[in-house]
Structure formats: C-alpha cells, structure tokens
Design brief:
507 residues; 3-stranded antiparallel sheet; single chain; alpha/beta; globular; 5-stranded parallel sheet; 48% helix
C-alpha cells in the first residue's frame, strides 16, 4: 500500500496536513478558515480605510487572515490589495540601512503596475480621464519606477498583485519592454508614441517618493480604485531579519511610525506581525491612532478548524476530526502540545499520518500509542527549533524540573555555580520560554526567584525520565475557573501552584 492509498482509506482526497503554511493552501482556505473575533474590524470600511496591526505567534494564522482579505478585495472592482511580502535586500549589508524611501520606491512600483494594468483595459478612456499635464506626470513616474527595476522584481510583482486577474499580470512578466508598449498604446490616439528612455525628469521629482505615493493614489482613484490595502506580512522571513525580532521590526519601523502615510485617504496598511515584535512596535508606533489586535486561538476554535479542514480535504466525508482517533483524549493531547498553534497542530497531525502508516497501513483510525510517540517526536523537533544551541539544549534536559530555582539547579549539578546557571537560562528568559513565577522564602537566607517553563514542549523535554502520561499527570494543570481555563506547567508533584492568570488555587 502507498501513503496515498492509506490517506484515501482514511477518507481524505489528499493529505490535509501536507502544508503548514496558508500560502500553499489558497484553494482550500475558504473552507476551513476560522474568522477571529476582530476580523471584520481589520477589514473595516474599505471606503474609509484605517491602518491596523495584527499580532500573532508564528503559525498563529496571520497569513491566513491576509489571504482572506486578498480574496475579499478581489470581489470588488474598485478595491485594490497589494501584498507586500517580498523584499530584495541584496543591496543592503545590514538591516539598519533600510529606510522609508526603500519601501516607498518598492510600493510605488507595485502601485504603478496596478495603475497601468487598469488603464490598459480597452474600455478605459485614458485621454478623456487624464489631461496633458497628468499624462506627462504618469510618463515620468514610469521612467522613475518601472523603466529600470531589479531582476527579482517581476516575480515579486506577480506575487504581490494577487487581486489582479492572472492574464493581466502576465503582461508584466517581460516587464521593461511591455511597460514601453503599454505607454505607447495609451498615448497613440494623440499621435504620440512615448520613448521612456528619452523622458527627462528633475531630481526633485525623482527623490520625492512620499509625494509620488500620494499622487499615485490619486491616479489610482481616477482610474476607478476607491480603496487600496497594503498587506504587510512575513517581515521576519527575510534574509536580514530571520529569527531576530529586533531586526524584523527594523525592516518596517519607518513604515509603521509614519502616521502621515498610514492615514492617507483611500489607503490603509495592514501589518501582520510576529507577536515577538510587539514590544518594539508598541514603543515606536501610535496605538491611539493605529489600532492593534492580538490573535489568540481557543481550544474550541482549534477543534473546529481541524474538523472543517478534514471536511474540506475529504470532500465532505469527514465532518468530525475526532472520529479518526481510537481514543478521544488523543485529539486533546495534539491541541495541548501545539500550544494552541494551528501550524503546530498540522505538523503533529502530519507526523501522526506518517507514523500510523508505518505502524499499520490498514488502519482507519489513529492509535493512542502512535499519537503519543508522534507528539514526543514533535517535542524533540520543536525544542531544537526553539533552542538552536546544542549545548544549551542538553542543559535543558538536565534540569529535570518544570519549575525550579537557580540554587536547585546548582544542587542538581546542571552547572557548577549560580553564575553559570544564569548564563544557561538567560537566553530562555529573554526568549520568553522561561519566566519568573515568584519568590521562594528560605530560612536564614535571602529569598530566591523561582522559574517555570512557558512552553509545554520545552517543559516535556526538561523531564526526560517521564512518559507522556506521567508528565501530563504530574506537571500540567488547566485552571478550573470557567472564565480562565488556561494551561500552565509546574512541578505539581512537589507542591501546589495557583493559576498565574487569575490566582485560583488548582489542586
């Protein structure tokens, strides 16, 4: 039996967990997308648009929201959505060199392509719509932004202008020559064929990128676009930003701080940001003028998403994802160890598919043993992703506690002394994986800080002597208060701990 046959026997048409990135699942996304509570606020009134910031953990659904806004914009002929995710940073040696002019130059190119695509329509009366002065300005803008572009730009443009029809975007694949041809076409009725290479432009116009942006917006409005969304995503996935929140914020800091630009009529920016950027953005941006939203999934939303996903990928055959498990608690464990991350849920489920196929390809349900072993394997993978330093990861497994003091780790011989322990755990606290949870009083000695892991995958890896069942029993609690219900991880087998959110005592 092949893996494809196994997946078909389960009831799926294709593997529903093959991809963990929404960009790869545009075809199915409408079927299983779960709207966050604030989704309509982010969409807002497109004819009086406002800029927003959306924060979410990695894998938390930012890109899915962005794609759904793209799809919704495409339904209206007068709404333009530009997806700003690709950056050619090859000309920069460090992230600090990127400024507002870089972004405006890039965005002006994209806006102009959308404009030329619009006026190139045979039904558009270019000469009636734009007077002679405006046409001269248009030609000059084309000379500045489109006549000479980076080699990477055509592909980036095609990926960015998702709301334009595919056949129209094909026009720009060759790029330089088609731009000239389009300009010749739109000016031919006046007996003038424009040669962009001979157009003279003054330096003030060439360097006034923000003024040019404002004017291009007005040109787009005259061409029939009443609303323009700029969807900023994947700022932490560029070669100069990577896994660094500070560098990621620096990439878009000049954009996010420019209120004049963000409040331009008919224009709005939607920033879909990794939540690790929030401390930087809150300090630099104006939350009273640019509203932000936090994406946090609930347990029930994750279950609903997985069931809708199963239904979409099975052609409606599997409406309840829980029905695929021998033991219903297995689904709960997947969600628990995903830390309520849709992407990590998908990754765990993909692992389960592979492991169940190896274990018993004739099975039509996922066994409890396969689910548990898949979760354990995922925890190892995730720990390596979160703590990339192999030595530091080895220290993690030596702590053998979920909550502890530095002095306890010294006693356990994780390291020789307190300064050495601090050097080990400082990166964990900086990244938010470990957190101070209180003070421990000591007789005849100074009180000391107590720490606890905030990520269940790291907490599990820190207790290598425990099975999954033993770990959940001894180290995991869910707050019993109906209005809270958060999970937290402590050495409950040593002493009780109150809920860190609502201070409720949970035995």
């Amino acid at each position: 039996m092949t893996i494809e046959q196994f997946i078909n026997n389960l009831g799926f048409e294709v593997n529903p967990f093959q991809y963990s990135n929404a960009d790869k699942e545009v075809e199915y996304l409408d079927s299983y997308f779960i709207k966050p509570d604030y989704f309509e606020d982010v969409w807002g009134n497109p004819y009086n648009p406002v800029s927003n910031i959306i924060y979410a953990p990695r894998g938390g659904g930012k890109t899915a929201q962005r794609i759904m806004i793209e799809k919704r914009a495409k339904e209206s002929n007068d709404i333009l959505a530009i997806t700003y995710t690709n950056h050619d940073l090859s000309g920069f040696h460090k992230i600090e060199d990127i400024n507002l002019n870089y972004h405006l130059t890039y965005l002006n190119r994209l806006l102009l392509i959308a404009f030329f695509n619009r006026i190139n329509d045979t039904s558009f009366d270019f000469d009636f719509t734009f007077n002679f002065s405006e046409r001269q300005y248009i030609y000059k803008l084309a000379r500045i932004y489109l006549f000479e572009t980076p080699a990477s730009f055509p592909n980036h443009a095609i990926q960015s202008l998702k709301t334009l029809e595919d056949y129209a975007v094909d026009l720009w694949k060759g790029f330089k020559e088609p731009i000239t041809n389009v300009i010749k076409q739109i000016s031919k009725s006046k007996g003038l064929e424009v040669d962009l290479s001979k157009i003279e432009i003054d330096k003030k116009l060439e360097f006034s990128h923000k003024d040019n942006t404002f004017n291009v917006i007005q040109l787009l409005k005259k061409s029939g676009y009443n609303s323009i969304y700029i969807l900023v995503d994947k700022v932490d996935e560029q070669n100069l930003t990577g896994n660094n929140p500070s560098a990621s914020f620096l990439l878009i800091s000049d954009l996010i701080k420019d209120l004049e630009l963000l409040e331009t009529p008919n224009l709005s920016f939607k920033f879909f940001l990794w939540d690790a950027l929030k401390p930087f953005a809150v300090e630099a941006a104006r939350p009273d003028r640019v509203f932000s939203y936090d994406l946090r999934w609930t347990w029930n939303q994750i279950i609903k998403m997985l069931s809708k996903r199963s239904e979409a990928y099975s052609g409606g055959k599997i409406k309840n994802f829980e029905s695929l498990f021998e033991n219903r608690k297995s689904l709960g464990r997947i969600i628990l160890f995903s830390e309520l991350s849709p992407r990590d849920c998908v990754r765990i489920c993909n692992r389960i598919l592979s492991e169940q196929f190896k274990e018993n390809p004739n099975s039509t349900k996922f066994s409890e043993l396969v689910v548990d072993s898949s979760i354990e394997q995922f925890c190892r993978e995730k720990a390596q992703e979160l703590i990339v330093n192999a030595t530091n990861l080895k220290h993690l497994t030596k702590t053998n506690h979920v909550s502890y003091t530095i002095e306890e780790l010294v006693t356990a011989k994780v390291a020789a002394d307190s300064p050495a322990i601090r050097n080990i755990i400082n990166p964990w606290t900086t990244a938010g994986y470990l957190k101070k949870i209180g003070l421990i009083e000591r007789k005849n000695a100074k009180s000391v800080n107590e720490y606890a892991y905030q990520d269940i995958r790291l907490a599990f890896m820190a207790t290598p002597t425990l099975s999954l069942d033993q770990f959940i029993m001894a180290k995991v609690r869910r707050c019993k208060t109906d209005t809270c219900k958060i999970f937290y991880y402590r050495d409950f087998d040593r002493k009780p701990y109150d809920c860190p959110e609502c201070n409720t005592e949970n035995e």
